[in-house]
Amino acid sequence: MRKGYDVAIIGGGVIGCAVARELSRRRLRICLIEKGEDVCSGTSKANSGIVHAGFDAKPGTLKAKMNLAGSRMMPQLAQELDIRFRRNGSMVICLSEDRIPDLQELYMRGLENGVEGLQILSGEEARKKEPNLSECVVAALYAPTGGIICPFELTIALAENACVNGVEFRRSETVTGISREADGYVITTDIAQLKAKCVVNAAGVHADEIHRMVSTVPMHIQPRKGDYCLLDKEVGDYVSATVFRLPSALGKGVLVTPTAHGNLLIGPTATDVEDKNQTPTTAAELSYLTETAAQSVRELPLRSVITSFSGLRAHEDGGDFIIGEAADAEGFFEAAGIESPGLTSAPAIGSYLAGMIAEKLHAEEKTDFIPTRTAIPRLAKLSTEERKALIANNPLYANIVCRCEQISEGEILDAIRRPVGAVSLDGIKRRVRAGMGRCQAGFCTPRIMEILARELNCPMEKICKNVSGSELLTGTMEERK
Description:
Blueprint: E1 3-10, H1 14-23, E2 30-34, E3 50-51, H2 62-81, E4 85-86, E5 90-94, H3 100-113, E6 119-122, H4 123-129, E7 139-143, E8 147-149, H5 151-164, E9 168-171, E10 175-181, E11 184-189, E12 193-201, H6 207-212, E13 221-231, E14 242-245, E15 255-258, E16 264-267, E17 271-272, H7 283-296, E18 305-316, E19 322-325, E20 332-336, H8 342-361, H9 384-393, E21 400-402, E22 407-408, H10 409-417, H11 425-432, H12 445-456, H13 477-480
Parallel strand pairs: 1-2, 1-12, 2-9, 5-14, 12-20
Antiparallel strand pairs: 3-8, 4-8, 5-7, 6-7, 10-11, 11-12, 13-16, 13-17, 13-18, 15-16, 19-20, 21-22
Helix pairs in contact: 1-5, 1-8, 2-8, 10-11, 10-12
């Protein structure tokens, strides 16, 4: 028997979760289908974490509209969902006199888009704000409304809040087909058949594949790989603003930025690939990344790199976001080609699409919608008195599991037991940062696996880094005898 919904959302990245939360304000039956074992397991997990001011997108595009709206929504959203967000400002640097006109064009574009507080700075003025900028910087565009946020926190918080408000999350489930019926769509997955009046395609780099299941309108998503390097917190204040290069046809280029958690991040590169699962870093790309970043910031402390990683952006051939109802498929809504500034735009895209769907379904607003969510307590950030009170209430907060990030067993249990809770090592890492410190999980992994196995009531050999097939253990020593 097919389970029926009013709306089925395909994709558990930041866009899908933003749509889910906004739709959960209405009296609707909603599910979100995610092929990974967790939300935030695709493009959203490998993200710069930048809240863009909005000066880059071409005026009149959906990118420009959603960027500015999303940036303005972020402070209230961060407050409601209890997540870290800071307006640290952004700076686009110019390294040659002959490109100053391009910088001025970016400034005028920002004004047309409605970005507040933009300034053109001389090289000397820019270095007064950021003393570690390269001496080669001749001018810069400064945007005080630029910000930083944790992409994991944002996506997971949106999912948790949507779940509390009634959205069903179907993880580790892959959509294999969609067919049209008179009163909606039948969605076939690898484990079930579902029925929905409306479908939302928020499948990231796979959005064109989902699109072709329903629509004949051409769509092509080009996966664009970006490599990053993450530096230790000891150099997290090397720059205070997000430092960009002048953008190119492939994107905003290599940036240097503090993160919401106090690290320093450089990246991304931009390499078009064909394989939508091609995320290994390469020596050549990392070399290009560090050399390019070093042109922006002098004496970049690369000896403090603790890890490198890469992610895929979903570039649609038309270059703009595709948001709305498919022209030839009534009730099939899409958020496709959502590359940068997609993270910034997510709240606005969620509100925009949810409004369209609610209007189509004549959905009523809930009177009991819960807009707020409380984050997992961070022991390392609490005062001595606050720690004592937390431990008195739950002694497991006194058991430190991850020494680098000072993460306790109590926090790990919270990550597992919350709505849309963690079921993998990466799920724990993204929720509480266990394994994200200097040793990169070298010491805490076995203990975290023990906790997961106990809480999920499964053998340790079944505990995965992320998706099924990424198990770390193959058996026990007794079995090998």
